[in-house]
Write a structure and sequence with these properties.
The chain has 194 residues and is α/β, with parallel strands linked by helices. Strands 2-1-3-4-5 form a five-stranded parallel beta sheet, with helices on both faces.
Length: 194
């Protein structure tokens, strides 16, 4: 398995096929997307790669010796860190008509028959890359918001401690307001995590 290193491994594309010619063709089509391409020559290698790093999308051949594409997809969907990674199944045009249904039932996001149209494949992968970028931005915003909630709660705690230590007029009223604000923050955190 070869890995091109990057500072943003989350945008990598995993290419899974047991045939070298197919991997070369996929790389030629997807190279222009300027995202790291990682090869896996088997389902086992694919699962290992997904345990090591994040991927934006997986292109997965259905017909492989040993662990086929369906079994590989099922194993991917069982991994907590990879269960939401979209999978595009790749297979020959002569494949059984039930392959598409089985692929979607296994958790595939899309299905492409080989030989594939390079423009169509690149467009489909681009859509998943953009979705991945948007999800990462959203995760970052939510983490920053959570940090702000935590900072606000800590400040409220320090205010409460200060007010309890220093006699100020209407301390009970101020402390009651602080407790209400702290309860509100707690509800906000719980609703975010639900």
């Amino acid at each position: 398995m070869s890995v091109r290193t990057t500072t943003d491994e989350g945008s990598s594309i995993l290419l899974v096929d047991d045939m070298e010619d197919n991997l070369v063709a996929l790389e030629a089509v997807l190279r222009s997307l300027n995202e790291p391409l990682v090869r896996a020559r088997s389902g086992e290698e694919a699962v290992e790669a997904l345990l090591r790093q994040r991927f934006a999308v997986v292109l997965l051949d259905i017909r492989m010796p040993g662990m086929d594409g369906f079994e590989t997809a099922a194993n991917i969907k069982r991994l907590d860190r990879a269960k939401d990674v979209p999978i595009i199944f790749l297979t020959g045009r002569d494949a059984d008509a039930g392959y598409a249904f089985r692929g979607y039932a296994t958790g595939a996001a899309d299905y492409v028959a080989k030989p594939f149209d390079p423009w169509v494949l690149r467009a489909k992968v681009s859509v998943f890359l953009e979705l991945h970028r948007k999800n990462r931005q959203l995760e970052s915003l939510l983490a920053r918001e959570q940090d702000q909630f935590d900072e606000l709660a800590a400040r409220l705690g320090r205010m409460d401690t200060h007010l309890a230590a220093n006699a100020v007029q209407d301390v009970p009223g101020l402390r009651a307001q602080i407790r209400q604000m702290d309860e509100l923050l707690g509800r906000m955190r719980r609703s975010r995590n639900a």
